Amino acid sequence: YANKDVFVKCGERAMVPLGFALELPEGWEGHLAPRSSTFKTWGIIQTNSVGVVDDTYIGDNDQWHMPVYCLQGKDIESENGEEVKGTWIRKGDKIGQFRIMEVMPEIEFEEVESFGNKDRGGFGTT
After folding, report:
1. Is the distance from CB of 74 to CB of 50 less than 8 angstroms?
2. 6-102 adopts what CATH topology?
3. Among residues 101, 96, 37, 31, which one has the least CA distance to residue 66?
4. Which of 54, 55, 60, 93 is catalytic?
5. Helices and strands in the chain, H and E counts
6. How far is CA 88 from the centre of its chain?
7. How far apart are CA 101 and CA 104, in angstroms?
8. DSSP alpha helices (H): ranges in 1-126?
9. Regarding predicted confidence, which is higher, 77 or 62?
10. Which tens digit of pLDDT belongs to each residue from 79-121?
11. What are the Cα distances from residue 4, in Å, to 34, 100, 110?
């Protein structure tokens, strides 16, 4: 949930405070993502696609935030009476969701010249 009202002008970004902090167990991390309705409702996207919060982010001022960028806004009257294109995210709006996940174990990769398999056509072919 957004922890306070935030106005984001179209073409600009903002950090939306979520009003909580977590002390995650060692070896665990949080993945913050927008809800499926976030863009349709507010015209915003999360600027880092998915936010990964590791278990060391536990300072007294380490409140979780959602970094957003406004792509679609509505005409809204500003404080000085001018029309401004943007969107309001209001305190209590459900703009994101998160999952707590175990950190992926470290793995080793082996570099090879060829896999020896049939090509499948690349991205966007299936």
Report:
1. no
2. Deoxyuridine 5'-Triphosphate Nucleotidohydrolase; Chain A (2.70.40)
3. 96
4. 54
5. 1, 9
6. 17
7. 9
8. 38-42
9. 62
10. 778 889 999 999 999 999 999 999 999 999 999 999 888 887 7
11. 17, 24, 48
Where in the chain are the domains?
6-102
Structure tokens at 31: 């993945």
Distance from chain centroid for Cα 19: 15
Burial bucket for residue 86 (CB in 10 Å: 0-12, 13-18, 19+): buried
Per the DSSP assignment, residues forming a β-bridge with 29 are 101
Structure confidence at residue 125 (pLDDT): 66
Residues facing 88 on adjacent strands = 7
pLDDT tens digit sequence for 39-57: 999 999 999 989 999 999 9
Return all residues near 99 (Cβ < 8 A) that are at least 6 apart: 30, 31, 33
State yes or no: is 5 an active-site residue.
Answer: no
Tokens of 108: 């080793």
